[in-house]
Every structure is written in C-alpha cells, then in structure tokens.
Amino acid sequence: MPDSKSNNAAIDAKRDIRISKSLAKLLRHNAKSEGLSIDSDGYVPLSEIISHNYMKTNHATIDDIMRIVETNSKKRFKLKQTGAHSYHICALQGHSIPSIAYGQSENLAPIVDTWPKFIVHGTYVEKLPLIIESGGLSKMSRNHIHFTFAIPAKFAKYVSNSDDDIGGTVISGIRSSCNCLIVMDVEKLKGSNLPFFQSKNGVILSPGDQNGFISTDFIEKIIDHKRGDITKSILSGK
To answer: What is the CATH number of domain 4-91?
Structure first.
C-alpha cells in the first residue's frame, strides 16, 4: 500500500512551491499592479500578502509563509518585525518594479573595496548568440543583471583543480539548469564605473551601464558544462 505519510509530505512540498512562486511573483513583479503597499526596499506588509488572492488560492497561512522564508534553499525572501505582532516581507533580488532601489539599500551592499574572486553569470548555450550579437549581458525587464560569486560544482573542473579555489558555495544567483557559465573579468570590472552590489543572500547584482548592459569586453571566459572553455569559438565572431 502507498505510504500515506510520504504522499502527504509530497503534497505539502508541492504546496510550498506554489506559495513560494506566488510570493516571488508578488514581491518581485506585481506588488504595485496588485495594489500592495511596497516601499523602496521592496517590503510589503505581511498582512497584505496573506490577504491577497494569490495566497488565498493556496490557503496560505502566516505560519506557512514564515516556514517558507526560513527553509527556502535560495534564501529568496526576508521577514522583518515592524511591531509587536506585525511583519513586513521582501524578495531579496529579482525585481522588475522600477521604484525598488537599484543601488545601496537595506538589503543591497555596494561592492567597493573587497571584491569576490569570481563574478559569474549563468545562462544557456542557445542564448549565447543573442548575448554576443547584442553586445553583452542585459538586465532586460529586471532592475539588475544577476551573478554569483562562486563556480557551481558542475563547472568547477574547468576552472580549478581544487575545490577550495572556486569561490565558495553557490546559494542563489544562478539557475541549477544553466548549462553555460560566463566568467567576468573582475579586474576589468574594478576599473570600470559599473556599480555592483551584493544582496543579503549573496547574489551579485549590477544595473549595468546607462542602457542596462555590461559589454562583452568584460567577459573573461565562457564555459560549457560538457565541452569546457568555449570562449574563443564564441567570441571570435564579435
């Protein structure tokens, strides 16, 4: 007979994923259009979130949201207590709402003196032609281009022979499904006027230049997770 406890756990996990996705949609993209009170740091009163139809559809409770914030593997959300029994919640990055702070804020620290060893952007091999043809990485509809400060495990062998030399453990900032890694030239970035920030959950963020781009001139290496370094073959057509 099926294990009822296992089935219930699977159902609960799927429900948590639905609630998490709904939270991300509201806090990153739709808070204003849905009439929620969102401040410049991206915080929304939890009371407004829990009353929204996105949450009601999933029968989400405050305890559900608090658990999801605590257990989310990407650490996407942050809660802060604003009163004896009141809380505000925000997404730590990924916003497309223009009024959310692009620069230094409560949840974004500027990278000025101490830079990470690596600044890497995860993407897909099939996206590379568009990136090269357009002249670089684009923030597109979001407020920032997203990076991480470490080399994900499946790319590590193409960067270093030592697990201690890949920058640390990736928590957030890159999709696990990415099959291609763009490694930026950190020394060149240091000498540029491009602003970089680090979020509370470790994601490296940049709004890019005045057009929302970071030029291919700042790319040091492009790594395919199966073929290794493909920089020359990709950039030779620039």
So the answer is: 1.10.10.970
